[in-house]
Model the fold of this input.
Amino acid sequence: MSRKSFVVSLLLTAAVAASHAFAPAAMADEATAQPKDKSMMSREQVTRILDSSRMIIPSQGVDEKVRLHINGIDQWVSIRGKDRRNPVLLFLHGGPAAPAMPESYTFQTPWEDYFTVVQWDQRGAGKTYRANTEEAMAPGMSVKGMTDDAEQVVSYLREHFGKQKIFLMGHSWGTILGVELAQRHPEWFYAYISTGQVVSGRRNEEVGFNYALGKAKEEGNQAAIREMEAMAPYPGNGPLTLDRVGTRSKWEMYYGGLAWGRKDYQFDVDAEELSPDYSREDLAAIDKGSLFSLKYLLPELLATDFSHVTHFDCPVIVYVGAHDYTTPHELAEQWFANIHAPSKKLVSFADSAHMMMQEQPGRFLAHLVSDALPLAQKVGDAAPAEVTSDH
Done:
């Protein structure tokens, strides 16, 4: 089973395993073999070039990987930004246990002109999984425990950078922690930025299943129809096993509900292989961490229901992919309509599904700058305005 199996979001969980069942041996060989053709570059050469291309000047900005001891275990964060005066943005990754740090170089670098961006490998994920024993991590493997962890990460960032407020962005599974944290401490955040919001775990399953089955019938895909109809009615009232979630997820991804116009997630897996932020050992920890984490977190994820959690005391920005059926866009749109907050905004990305920051990175950044950044500037906690020259 390849890396990224059982990760990225609730409904991606087992789909990637099915999509990339062929990959593990080949990927392992590529990771360890030296290039036979001397004109080819090694992984180390590629990562060095990528890292050099996104260099941050230390006197002005920040480029750190920090190990924090939080709630009994070591937890890793990456902190990158071109100007320390910029607002801090904490990214809560999906999964459970799908760290965004290894592929963040594919979309995050331009963000660093405007924000100090923090990628945190959550309990059970990536570098944090590798740094601890499973026995040490297990007591906090719950939504409450991981929200407690997130609380400590935010407290560290506020103190470290001397900021009263930061931006909080959740993606997929990370939106569960994001909502919980924004409810606990709205005064800490310029805004909660929701990306691929989990509103209801079981409704996610139902809507995604119906979408994929409908597409399969339109196309006459007998294999997909046979596999999905064997599970109907879905999700039903019984337990949602990993196999059942994986089958639904596989076909929803095949029909573009994860990344619009794509049938699999190989582009992200390939990008991770060249990550300048992750060693080979870190990469190997992703699968182990996801299998460990799902044992504890999948039932909680599927039981999530924020349908009536609609009062926020901080601004809320909701980004949806118009083709997202991993966390179905219509559920997030309905949820947004009922939100009461000091301010709120919904943006739909027309050519994206669940991975909008990678699918439409330019438009995503433009909206971060136009929708979020002014909320920090209102309280004077942002870098001075740029003076531009068009010579």
